[in-house]
Amino acid sequence: MPHYGIAASGMSRKVDRPDSLAVSDSPCERSYVDPEGIAWRVFVRVRSDYDGRQGRSLIFASETVVRRVRNFPDDWRECPNAELERLSWNA
Fold this sequence. Notes:
Blueprint: E1 6-9, E2 12-15, E3 29-33, E4 39-45, E5 57-61, E6 66-69, H1 81-88
Antiparallel strand pairs: 1-2, 3-4, 4-5, 5-6
């Protein structure tokens, strides 16, 4: 399981997490659990801090893995979970 640093400032606590698991740039997000029981967050990222290429990416983020898919259908939010799972392997 990954370890995330915790920084305390006064009474508030902030959890420092990798950018790939931070809250998405898009208000549209989906979650699903794959056949192995792994929970995934799926969201669109307009650009990546780690890549100079421009455009949209569909991000699949679990607790230990992040996948980025550049070519995905506009109606990805309506795809069945099994179709999203197949799409995630196009990273």
